[in-house]
Every structure is written in C-alpha cells, then in structure tokens.
Amino acid sequence: MQQQSAVEIAQRPGPEAKANAQLRESALKEEMNPNRNAPRLLGESTMTSPKRLARIAGVLYLLVFISGVFAQGFVLPKIYAAGDAATTAGNVVANSGLARIGVVADLFQATVLVFLGMTLYILLKHVHQSAARAMLVIVAIGSAIICLNDVFTFESVRVATESSYVAALGTAGSSALVLLLLDIQHYGFYIAQIFFGLWLVPLGYLAYKSGMFPKALGVLLIVGGAGLLVEMLATFLVPDFGEAKINVFVTIPSAVAEILMIGYLLVIGVKAPKPAARIVAAA
After folding, report:
1. 78 contacts: CB under 8 Å, gap ≥ 6
2. 131: nearest Cα among 18, 61, 210
C-alpha cells in the first residue's frame, strides 16, 4: 500500500504542470476570441491608445492637406498656364524658387500620406483586415505616383532656368519643353487621383463599420472617393467640358469629407463605446 501510494503521488501533476496547463487553456481561449485584435475601449486608461492613434492620424492628415493645397492649389497655378508655352516658361523663371518649394512640399505630402495610411491601418485593422490592407496599398501606390510626378515639375524648372537648354533648343523650343513637362505633371496628378479616390472607399467603409466614427462620415468619405474618380474620368474623356464644369462640383464631397475627418480625428479622436457595449465587452 505504501508503495502504491508513492506511485500515485509521483504520477500526480505538480504545481508547474498545472500552471502550464492553465497557460495553454488561457492561450486557447484568447486565440478563439474574435475580438482579440480590437483596440480596448473599456476605460479611460485603455482609451489612451486608440485616441492617441486617432490624434496622430489627425495631425498627419492635416499636414497632408496643408502641403497638398500649397503645392497643387497655390504653387502650380502660379507657374502653369495650359496651352501657353511662353507664359508658362516665363512664370517658371519668375517663380523658380517657389516652384522648388512646391516640389519639396509635394514630396513631403506624399511621404506623410504613407505614414497616415499606416496609422489608420493600425487603428482600423480590427474592423476588416483585408479592407485595411487594401487602403494601405492604395495609399502607397498614390504616394509613389506623386513622387514620380514631381520629377517633371523639377525638370521644368531646370529647363526654364539653365541657359544650356535655350542654347540647344532655342527660346521657343525650351519654352515648349517646359510646357510639356508641366502638362505631364498636370495629367499625372489626375492619374494619382485614381488612388486618392480609391483609398477613401475602404477608409469610409472601415469608419462606417468600426463604430468609432459617425456613420454619416463613413458614407461621405465613400461618396467623396467616387467623386474624385468621376473627376479623373471627366478630365480624360471630356476634357473641355470636364475640367471647366464637372470637376468643380464632383470634388466638393471629397473636400468636405476629408476636412470633417481631419477635424473629427483632431478634436474627438474616436467615439467612446456606449455603456451597454462596455458591459458586453467586459463580460
């Protein structure tokens, strides 16, 4: 009997084995939890991470907006006169320093846009990981096109300001080349706009489904993305009518949606869950 008791005691699991079994059981439960990747939204201390990510995204989005408006809305109209080579070349010469600053601002916008996409991916990937990944890939492609596009603006400044081009091509020839380079930049921006429109669609979907943002804002982002695609198509398919009349109206939803998104991210961050949602999450 004493020998049998000793054997039974030897076969009993020790404290270490019990602890390992409990750890395996906890890990299995955590793996089976469908909400394991969701940001915690249960209390003030756990709200810090999602709110901080949202505020970081808001700051990055604001930087993208300001630098983009400066480069495309302020600098480019001062140097580019569509269809007029002599005027365009003269504008580039007179504003060569401003044009260079515009190139840097546009490169800065494209770079920050990638970090914005990464931040929003971290914030929203728990909602739908495939949509979040698509958003990030689309942002990266659009940013790459913008960076490549800025090469043409920079080269237009070099052609307009360096005497070697005038000596080789003549005044009319160098002016025509300056206009050609800025024409490529102008229409290259509309190609990049394909992706600027597309990225708003998964962003709007994620904002709508997450519960972190007003659902109306998610819908408006999707509508704004569709509007940018319509603008691009109108520019290439009906250029005389599109750029003059259609584009003014179809870009309004995207502008409103992105301004509201920036404001929401900066001021509110993300919505706190309702008390009922907290109880369910706690359970």
Report:
1. 91, 95, 98
2. 210
Q: What is the dihedral of CA 214, 218, 221, 225, to 10 degrees?
A: 180
Residue 68 CB neighbour total at 10 angstroms: 20
Residue appearing with tokens 């809305």? 73
User: What is the distance between the alpha carbons of residues 263 and 65, in angstroms, rounded to a whole number?
Assistant: 12
pLDDT of residue 180: 96
- Tokens standing for residue 172: 């009319």
Alpha-carbon span 68 to 71, nearest angstrom: 5
Match 């039974």 to its residue by tokens. Answer: 8
> What per-residue confidence (pLDDT) applies to 122?
94
pLDDT at 15: 56
Position 57 scores a pLDDT of 95
Which residue is it, tokens 């007003």?
214
Taking the domains of the chain in order of start, what are their residue ranges? 46-270
Extract the residue ranges of the chain whose pLDDT is less than 50.
Answer: 1-2, 7, 9-10, 34-35, 38, 40-48, 275-283
Question: How many Å separate Cα 141 from the centre of its chain?
Answer: 10
Read off φ and ψ for residue 6, nearest 5 degrees: -65, -40
Start-to-end Cα distance in the chain? 48
DSSP 181-222: HHHHHHHHHHHHHHHHHHHHHHHHHHHHHHSSS-HHHHHHHH
Which residues have CB under 8 Å from 66's CB, separation 6+? none
Give the C-alpha separation, 93 to 74, whole Å: 16
Q: How far apart are CA 145 and CA 132, in angstroms?
A: 20
Q: Which amino acid is at 55?
A: R
